[in-house]
Amino acid sequence: MSRVLGSVRAKATLGATLVVAVALLAAGAAVLLSLRGNLLDQADTQAERSARNVAADLAAGTAYDRLDLDDDGPPVQVVDEDGRLVAASEGLDAVSGTGSAAVRPRPPSPSATPDGRGGGSDERGSRDDSDDSGDSDGDSDDDRSGRAGSGGDDDSYATLEPGEIADEAGRSDGSATVDGERADYRFAAVQVEVPGKGRLTVWAGAALATEQGAVRTALTVMLVGFPLLLCVVGVVTWLVTRRALRPVEGIRRELAAITASADLARRVPVPDAHDEVARLARTTNETLTALETSVERQRRFVADASHELRSPIASLRTQLEVGEAHPELLDVPGAVEDTVRLQRLAADLLLLARLDAGERPADTPVDLGELALDQSAGRAGVTVSAADAVTVSGSRGQLARVLANLLDNAARHARAEITVTVRREGDVAVLAVADDGDGVPEDERERIFERFVRRDDARSRDDGGAGLGLAIARDVAARHGGTLTVRQAPAGGALFELRLPPRDRAREGS
Which of 87, 37, 94, 80 is nearest to 66 (CA)? Predict the structure, then answer.
């Protein structure tokens, strides 16, 4: 189970599901907020329209008892500037969130209506007085709440003309009980200046049942739909990921089989596509090819090394056995020669092993002209032509080994003369070794750099070389960031050119 949960497919499925879940939550919240805002705006518009209709009737001189305040319409309250309820919808049993908590209008006192008009003649006002029992404390509370929630501002109060309705409307949330049914409402308060009645505030409500129902419906749909959608996303991602990773599993199984069988000739299947998995399969096959080549090269190297070591060891053993039986027949110079040959071969094999292991050369300055003079000293027929200040970075010992191997190779093939040239060509340091021998045929110019490869004419004139000199020279050149090539010399023999980056450019590159 833990293996499945820790797989790439499970992680991809979980990640995709989490991302979609976050996106759905954000989108759902935005939709709900937008829906609620739009519905509240509609409720505000509806409540304000109802309030303005009543305010228009009041501004036109309609009496309180003639206002259209039926119980089948929105809940409406009309409050005077003293906070007294002067008109209300029929069937209104309770209300909150408006300018007055009263639901039955009361007639004004004679001092409040010197003209004898107002709500005093309203029969409903008379009934309200008997119902409220003249509670003065309750009246003062209603008045205070009415004044506090008048819905207008002091500036508009000063600028309204008789018969004028305020441009701005107040907003509040509250509830109302109409005919015994309680509901939440959005109230709008509109002020109107009525001649003979002063400043009146009309409160009208719009039910929020539609808004609440729509929000609940949308929330229910989301609570049901989102989990189903997430399940669909998870299943689809799981299936798509499994299909996409199926070639990867095939590659893994084939690599496991290659590891178990040690058969480096096998290759992983390459999907018929142009995606990352196909590129991975091709890269894996290229790696297997390189590994197979390396292993085969190593096997051939071990076989060739064993063969080359067997000859001097057998010769040396034979001479020692003969010397033990017949001391007068012991060939001491031959034994020494075989020992030296064996020592050189062991040194070559050790250097090749270090080069194959990726050993980096030292970063010391090496003057190629001075190196050419040192390595040419004591060699017959060698001429050195060296320019001044041709310096490279690297291992002096390894570069000296390269030049020594090139000189040894030239000595085997030259007739009389070997020329060593050191120069600088642009941003490249060049060390060239040329001889006046027969040269190297064009079809063998790359083969001679392979390990344990010797040409037939070299075998007939060989002084004990194992065919490792040129291979070592090219490997050392590559480790120093350079190249070693061969072509025909002007004198007709072989011209080996070692090209290396000079020290100033090598240091800039590092």
Answer: 87
| All structural domains of the chain with their residue ranges | 2-39+214-253, 54-210, 276-356, 364-509
Contact 407, 399 (CB under 8 A): no
pLDDT in tens, 449-463: 888 776 655 544 445
Q: Tokens 């109409």 — which residue?
A: 178
Q: Which of these, 55, 39, 50, 73, lies nearest to 178 by C-alpha position?
A: 73
| Res. 107: pLDDT tops 50 | yes
CB count, 10 Å around CB of 502? 18
Residue 366's nearest CA partner among 378, 354, 374, 358 is: 374
Question: pLDDT tens, 33-72?
Answer: 999 899 999 999 999 999 999 999 998 888 888 888 877 7
183 neighbors 75 (Cβ within 8 angstroms): no
Q: Does domain 364-509 have CATH number 3.10.450.50?
A: no
Distances in Å between the Cα of 184 and the Cα atoms of 195, 223, 342 are 34, 24, 106
429 contacts 309 by C-beta, under 8 angstroms = no
- Topology (CATH level 3) of domain 276-356: Helix Hairpins (1.10.287)
Q: Find, among 320, 343, 338, the residue nearest to 330 by Cα.
A: 320
Give the relative orientation of helices 469-479 and 332-356 as an angle to the nearest 10 degrees. 30
pLDDT digits (tens, 9 = 90+) for 324-347: 888 877 778 878 887 887 888 888
Going by their DSSP bridges, the two strands 391-394 and 483-488 should be labelled as unpaired
pTM of the full structure: 0.49
Q: What is the dihedral of CA 445, 446, 452, 454, to 10 degrees?
A: -10
Q: What is the mean pLDDT of the chain?
A: 81
Backbone angles phi, psi at 149, to 5 degrees: -110, 35
The C-alpha atoms of residue 63 and residue 77 are separated, in whole angstroms, by 14
Report the distance separating Cα 114 and Cα 108, nearest Å.
Answer: 10
Alpha-carbon distance 390 to 191, whole Å?
Answer: 101
Helix axes 8-59, 209-261, angle to 10 degrees: 170
The contacts found for 82-85 with CB under 8 angstroms, 24 or more apart, are 82/112, 82/143, 82/146, 82/147, 83/142, 83/143, 83/144, 83/145, 83/146, 83/147, 83/148, 83/150, 84/108, 84/112, 84/139, 84/142, 84/143, 84/146, 85/142, 85/146
Q: Please, which residues bridge with residue 432 across strands?
A: 421, 497
Q: Among 70-74, 425-429, 494-498, which is the least confidently predicted range?
A: 70-74
